[in-house]
Specification:
single chain; 5-stranded antiparallel sheet; 2 helices; 5 strands; disordered N terminus
Length: about 120
């Protein structure tokens, strides 16, 4: 792309790069922590402006199930990506439903899906 197509003040890659924030620290600084007790069993549905996905989170002791789908997707629709996060003895294991990261699961009861 030649400089004639760049907006004033953005005539070089360096000037553009200096205006793009470093995402990790910037996102962390704007994040609001959510604390869920490990012994709490329940379900939380979350939609954030930071992510283009609806989320369903189910916590059962040391196991957390997380499903994501396009905003507005019904939980009974087989359009969710689901994963199980297990924490035991200082080790965290993340497994996906059906052993893959496809968006082809229902989210009505995440604990009933097969994970690998």
């Amino acid at each position: 792309m030649s400089a004639q197509y760049l907006a004033p003040g953005n005539r070089t890659i360096t000037s553009i790069d200096s205006k793009i924030p470093v995402l990790g620290p910037a996102v962390a600084a704007q994040s609001v922590p959510v604390v869920i007790a490990t012994d709490q069993v329940g379900t939380l549905s979350v939609v954030t402006n930071e992510e283009p996905y609806a989320q369903k989170v189910t916590v059962a002791g040391a196991v957390t199930y997380v499903a994501i789908a396009a905003v507005g997707t019904l939980q009974a629709a087989a359009l969710w990506q689901a994963k199980r996060i297990t924490v035991a003895a200082g080790t965290t294991v993340v497994e996906f439903a059906d052993g893959n990261a496809n968006f082809d699961n229902v989210a009505t009861n995440l604990a009933l899906l097969a994970y690998a």
